[in-house]
Amino acid sequence: MNFMGFMNRKVLAAVGCLVLAGCGGSKEEIFQGYAEGEYVRVAAPFAGSLTELAVKRGDQVKAGAPLYALEQENERAARQEAEQRLKKAGDSLESAKAQRVQAAASLKHAEQTYRRTQELAGKKFVSPQALDDARSALDQAQAGLASLDAQATAAQADAAAARAVLKQAEWKLAQKTVSAPVAGSVEDTLYVTGEWVAAGGPVVSLLPPENLKARFFVPETRLGTLKLGQSVELRCDGCKAPVPAKVSFIAAQAEYTPPVIYSKENRTKLVYLVEARPAPADAAKLRPGQPLDVVLKHD
Questions:
Q1: C-alpha–C-alpha distance, residues 74 and 266, integer Å
Q2: What is the pLDDT of residues 143-174, one digit of tens each?
Q3: Please, which residues have CB within 8 angstroms of residue 144's CB and are 6 or more apart in sequence?
């Protein structure tokens, strides 16, 4: 064996020991990566001028905490109109119900009168004309009740429609006051009070702790050492202790070494993206974009 060959073997052995953190003890592989956040950009479905911004960058908010409000004049007016329409429909329905009660009572009286007149006519105590009049009164009472039944049905439909319109108006009004859908830190506010916000335009960007993850890349030759749920350690500058995490994603397809890794020797190699997520309490120790050393331990 020549001298250069001997030195190359020594260099490879040394690199292997560094990667495995000691040739004699517990083995660990270290990969370079970075922290990444999946932001929740909170928007309203309707446009409007920003009238209130209740948070600022850096705030920690709980789920349901108020974030911001848009102008609500049109929505308040629509709700008031819907309330008046519902009241009118309710009054009409109550009136129809009361009239139906009276019509039902009139029909019952007309039925009793007709039966009594029919009996008397059979005994020749009343004239045939009296029986005809009783029959006519019964027919009118039946028609009156049927008409009021139709009115009551129409009034019920109007009241149901009015309730639906009111519900929609209240929903639209509620959309103008926006609360935090999840707990997290306020990473950014994209508008200031007084600015016009387009429909669907995010105003506040939140980062829930559970949405922070580590991303790193492993070569194809080391892919077999990884599996979903595998425990890893995240190390960073300034971290007092390693942050535990678990592998949550392993890419199915290879890609070229990403530009955040600057080693010229690695640029032509194919690597696989891997993601690991720490527990929410531990994720608070990391910040998006922060460089990380991801440590895979092997027994």
A1: 60
A2: 988 998 998 899 999 999 999 999 999 999 99
A3: 103, 106, 107
What are φ and ψ of residue 87, in 5° steps? -65, -45
299 pLDDT tier (thresholds 50, 70, 90): low
d(CA 297, CA 232): 7
Separation CA 180–CA 64 (nearest Å): 5
- Report the CATH number that the domain containing residue 261 is assigned in CATH: 2.40.30.170
What CA–CA distance (Å, rounded) separates 64 from 205?
15
My answer on whether 52 and 197 are in the same domain is yes
Q: Is the dihedral of CA 57, 59, 61, 65 positive or negative?
A: negative
pLDDT digits (tens, 9 = 90+) for 80-126: 999 999 999 999 989 988 998 999 999 999 999 989 998 888 888 88
Residues 226, 214 contacting (CB under 8 angstroms): no
Q: How many domains does one find in the chain?
A: 3
pTM listed for this prediction? 0.70
- Token reading at 12: 């490879």
